[in-house]
Amino acid sequence: MINVFVLQNGRLNQVPIDTRADLENVAPVWVDLTDPNEDERAWVKAIYGVTLPGEDEVKDIEASARYYEAENGDLHLRTDFLLEEDDGPSRVVTVAFILARKMLFSVHTDDLPVFRLVRMRARSRPGSIADYMDVLLDLYATDAEYSADALEGIYLHLEEVSARVLQKQFTDQDAAAALNAIALEEDLNGRIRRNMMDTRRAVSFLMRGRLLNTEQFEEARQILRDIESLDGHTSFLFDKINFLMDATVGFININQNKIIKIFSVASVAFLPPTLIASIYGMNFRGWFPELEWSLGYPFALLLMVTSAIAPFWYFRRRGWLK
To answer: Which residues cross the membrane (predicted)?
Structure first.
């Protein structure tokens, strides 16, 4: 799918593209391609002379392949963007940017919420975008905002997990659910940190290359400051995640210790009855007066029951059964 945007009175307006002729009749500032087909790739190459990278090239993580200038002067960047999905775990989508002929070309496999938000804001805020470089910086700034919102969501989810972990009755089933929730939030927090690191590298590359004017350079510095503040927040969330993980594992150990304690108390309490049964089970001839008693058997049973109840009473009184 190909989306073409032109600047009109400081607004970023989308132009519908159905055929190659439609693309030839516009002067775009941004050409956004989501999972483009072969025809759309051919149109871009024929009209603008830009060869779009393939999916394998987009995902190349080598530093030399992520930021470089081609022989024809086109500037290529590869940047990761966070994608949260309602029906599955979050993931990172790599976007290929090409800056050529005062236009921004972007290629990605998924429709990203950051791109939708930039398009919506550009239409509602006249004068916020002046050229293709402003579009790119706005994408990076919006990506930082999107990551900040995701971090707020992580904090809220961790608060819910914390309330469950610190409740009075915390079963092993509750612990398993808490561990699963904590693991998901830890994974998302790690992806956000990786995403911010990659955005920092991309913005720093633009600043070092002297590709920005004075206003754009100051905006890039503000983006880097926002990312630095997000780094501190991700570190805080990692500490909170580790605390909740340790607390959950600790409660699991406590529950297991309770079970072990019950078995230990039971084994100690049944030692005296076992001893009595063993004594009266011996078949030695000689002086064994209880063998001649008519009430010897009830007496032995009563003695075993009493010897079993006495330890339980003592343990309960000392609070060892709680």
So the answer is: 262-283, 295-315
pTM here is 0.77
Q: Where are the alpha helices (DSSP H) in 49-171?
A: 55-58, 63-66, 113-124, 132-165
Residue range 247-253: mean pLDDT, rounded? 82
Same domain, 193 and 293: no
Q: Clarify whether residues 276 and 229 are in a common domain.
A: no
pLDDT of residue 287: 66
In sequence order, the β-bridge partners of residue 297 are none
What pLDDT sits at residue 87? 67
CB neighbour list of residue 254: distance below 8 Å, 6 or more residues apart? none
Decide the pairing of beta strands 30-34 and 103-108: parallel
Single out the residue in 205, 226, 255 at which a domain terminates: 255
In a domain, 261, yes or no: no
Structure tokens at 185: 């939030």
CA distance 67 to 103: 17
**Host domain of residue 308:** 270-318
Residue type, 69: E
Identify the pLDDT of residue 211: 83
pLDDT digits (tens, 9 = 90+) for 285-313: 656 676 677 777 788 888 888 888 887 78
pLDDT tens for each residue of 137-167: 999 999 999 999 999 999 999 998 888 887 7
